[in-house]
Amino acid sequence: MLLTEMAPPPGAEAVAGLRAGARAARRRALVALSSSIALLAAVQLLADRAPTREQTLPLAVLSLAVLTIALPTLALTQYVWGRRARLVRRRERELYSAAPAGLARVLSRIGMAAGWAVALLLGWTTPRQFRQAALYDFADALSRAVEVLVVLSCVAGVLFLFWWARDTLGMLTRAARSGGSPGDPWDPGHGTRQPGNPALWTGAAVTVAALLGARAHVWEPATALVYALLTAALVCTVVTDE
Length: 242
Fold this sequence. Notes:
The chain is 78% helix and 0% strand. The chain is mainly α and 242 residues long. The two termini are 38 Å apart.
């Protein structure tokens, strides 16, 4: 029997299934992150442009609602992604005695942390919209809650940096010790991974960056263009990898 006709080792199909689940969880985490940032930036930008307090109030409430839903959603989707990724690496080590290089994992963690930082920075400006709507008491109470969130976020950021540095050093040490083993040639996932549509991911990144630039007053797009950018960002993130 030719080697190419031999069946893969037991457990290979299970690893392929775990990889598919991890990729789906990663996509959900990225969609949640990019959608949350786009919505927060766009809603707050529109609230700042509202000509009256009556028009500012519903946008301020919407911004707070988006933030309230986004934070637990981001935490849940990234927890699921991390849990499934750990299962994949564990099974790869058990079956193939080596896991793929972790450079992409290192960069993705930094990218997700940067996304968290952007979402939190947008969330910290939420009380200002309520002040613009003349709800000063509620804005003050919300500011105190934001102060607590700032402290917790800074502590979480420091802990993340320590954990990321320790895990990255351990990964580099293991890679050097193993001599860069390519893994098992029977690995069914080697070279068969279907990437997502790069044009859609690029479009999502560009539109989200454009909304953030407008929120930071780097440029001043028309209101209709803000709606168009938000729509494009949501469409790109939702249909990506479908």
